[in-house]
Amino acid sequence: MAPFARAHYYRQAVRMLRGVVGRLEQEQGVPSAGVRLFSNSRLPEKPLLVATGLAAYGRNGCAIVPGLGSLFVIAGAVLPLPTRLSAPAAPLPQPCGSCRACQAACPVGALGRPYVVDRDRCLQAVATSPREMSEGVMDAWGVRLYGCQSCQSVCPHNRGLSCTAPPAVGEVGAGIPLLSFLSEDAPARAARFRGSALGMSWVPAEALVRNALVAAGNRGDICARSAVEAWLRNEHSPLIATAARWARARL
Question: Which pick of 6, 70, 97, 236 has the fewest CB atoms within 10 Å?
């Protein structure tokens, strides 16, 4: 298992591992058909990485690797090879010391307990969760469309990284025109993000629409009112209807 620099590069990480698997097949005779690759999977990837001794948990709940900080993705391979049990890897020292920058930076107080993330409040967790936002989360959402990494942006371990990746790969861009996004049909919204991190199946389309509606309400631009009301005239999920009503009240 190895950490790969920069977030959301799951596909690129798996592609790199396929090259490793190819070499294992050629040089060691390991059958590639029996190898299972994973990244952003249902496996407990962070605990597995920490258990290897390559990373340690930070106060923001992220795994921190020396030289990579927390701005990486995890990819691994399950190999059809016999293994021998050995002593557990020596854990890395706790990386944060007395630093509480991430806890102070969280816009919704999701890091009230160090090393534990309140997923009901965390904006990054809420961004892809197909459920209604609480009033406090909607107020703090701002004009985001997706995600939050305030706790990682202020982390000292994410400065002067020894390894980075080109940020243009999978990048959505500096911003999305809010009115255009809310006015597009489903195929057009899907085409907008094709090939980017937001084009992956783990980001529900209705969650992105909810996010955009909340952003419209927080922006307070009266020009967005008709686009918001259009989402109330048709039958949509309670998730979208609640966000649209909240946004209309703000406008």
Answer: 97
